[in-house]
Specification:
heterodimer; A: about 110 residues; mainly beta; 6-stranded mixed sheet; 5-stranded antiparallel sheet; B: about 110 residues; 7-stranded mixed sheet
């Protein structure tokens, strides 16, 4: 079993929809949670990061962490065609300084 | 602030040939990572440096892969000899320290034929 499991997708939504992207994890040592966006033929770009359980908002993006359930989510409100990309969750064991990535969910937002 | 620079962007080689990738991290970032990303998968850590020392190379196939970061800045990843299954995107990333978020370069897409 992988340490990080990400909903595989692909996901296709109409413009303006609310998108939910999800990951679960099994390693209790993960304390730092990140979301990256990766456009085709580009490197991953850091979107959001948080240490805490609860919600963190940045514009149309909200990162949610539930450490008790070992579950994290990224919500995108009012999705735009420019949000079409692969979204990667990543989790860090801060004591070891080591991050583990999910396999990504590919999102397409149709105009 | 300049990002992580990688070269080349693309490389096609025949199996059993050798290849080298170069990375220049963000200025001031002590930690440098090399990841392998196979199509449809997330990045997998190959090696992690803190300054010019290796922190983690447990996933590096040491019979064919090598990496160095001689002066604690630039890094080179080499594959010799290449196999078909090495076809992937090789991503370099850097972070201020080992327990902070990483910033990625554009990657080098390697095709082994």
């Amino acid at each position: 079993q992988k340490e990080v499991e990400q909903d595989p997708g692909p996901l296709s939504v109409p413009e303006g929809a609310i998108v939910s992207l999800n990951c679960t994890y099994s390693n209790s040592a993960f304390q730092y949670f990140m979301w990256y966006r990766q456009y085709s033929r580009k490197g991953p770009e850091l979107l959001m990061y948080t240490y805490s359980s609860g919600n963190k908002e940045d514009g149309r993006f909200t990162a949610q962490v539930d450490k008790s359930s070992k579950y994290i989510s990224l919500f995108i409100r009012d999705s735009q065609p420019s949000d079409s990309a692969t979204y990667l969750c990543a989790m860090m064991d801060t004591n070891a300084g080591k991050s583990t990535f999910g396999d990504g969910t590919t999102l397409t937002v149709k105009p | 602030e300049a990002g992580v620079a990688q070269s080349p962007r693309y490389k096609i080689i025949e199996k059993r040939q050798s290849v080298a990738f170069w990375c220049n991290p963000i200025s001031g970032h002590a930690t440098l990572y090399w990841y392998q990303q196979i199509l449809g998968q997330g990045p997998k850590l190959l090696i992690q440096f803190q300054n010019n020392g290796v922190v983690d190379d447990s996933q590096l196939p040491k019979d064919r892969f090598s990496a160095e970061r001689l002066k604690g800045v630039d890094s080179t990843l080499k594959i010799q000899p290449a196999k078909l299954e090495d076809s992937a995107v090789y991503l370099c990333a850097s972070s201020l320290q080992t327990n902070t978020e990483a910033f990625f370069g554009q990657g080098t897409r390697l095709t082994v034929v």
